[in-house]
Write a structure and sequence with these properties.
Pfam families: NTP_transf_6
Keywords: Transferase
Strand order of the largest sheet: 3-2-1-4-5
Protein name: Nucleotidyltransferase family protein
Shape: globular
Largest sheet: 5 strands, mixed
Order of helices and strands: HHEHEHEHHEEHEHE
Number of domains: 1
Helix content: 25-40%
Number of helices: 8
GO molecular function, one term: transferase activity
């Protein structure tokens, strides 16, 4: 992980660090701890709130193109919920290889199949939440297609690669009530972020 500040926040977070300490037991291909739990941990550290303030769940994604069944995904989620049963938070586990099978029913627009977990992370609704972490040797590996500047600066900017305006604005409304200190970029005032 390139940013020492981000690594320090994650390591000090009681839930994120507990998941990462046992990540080898996750045992899923191309697995990452992703999205809101990471971003919200950073926002809480920046605003002086408790690490778990506002946290609805912890998301773990993986990529298994050889098994696209909902049953297998549910089995992995049940296994990981048991593994992390001591943590006081809901765990959400998704196989990014099968998202295209249900996405249109859930959100109204279809999408092309992802090529990897990293590809999926690059479509998450904001630049700050388009982030994944996992252990990598003695440090943390980082997947941050848009970098970590928005995340560390408390900027919520839409990632228009896939998300709709309605989904983005719903997230912003929830987050604004919890973290009013953040800078929220309106949907119509931003261009699609460039990947660097």
């Amino acid at each position: 992980m390139s940013d020492a500040r981000l690594q320090a926040i994650v390591r000090a977070h009681p839930l994120l660090s507990a998941v990462l300490d046992r990540f080898a037991a996750v045992g899923l291909p191309d697995a990452w701890l992703v999205a809101g739990a990471v971003a919200q941990g950073v926002w809480n550290a920046a605003t002086g709130r408790a690490p778990t303030y506002g946290l609805k769940d912890i998301d773990i994604v993986y990529f298994d193109g050889a098994d696209l069944s909902a049953e297998t995904e549910a089995m992995h989620e049940a296994r990981l919920r048991a593994l992390f049963a001591d943590l006081a938070v809901k765990l959400d586990v998704k196989n990014e290889a099968r998202v295209h099978l249900w996405y249109a029913d859930a959100f109204g627009n279809g999408l092309e199949p992802y090529r990897s977990s990293e590809d999926a992370i690059g479509t998450f609704p904001t630049t700050a939440t388009s982030i994944g972490i996992r252990p990598q040797g003695d440090a943390l590996g980082l997947c941050a297609p848009f970098g970590v500047d928005d995340l560390l600066a408390g900027v919520v900017r839409p990632n228009k690669r896939q998300v709709t305006q309605a989904v983005y604005e719903k997230k912003v409304a929830r987050w604004r009530a919890l973290w009013p200190e953040l800078t929220y970029i309106p949907w119509d005032q931003t261009q699609p972020p460039s990947t660097t």
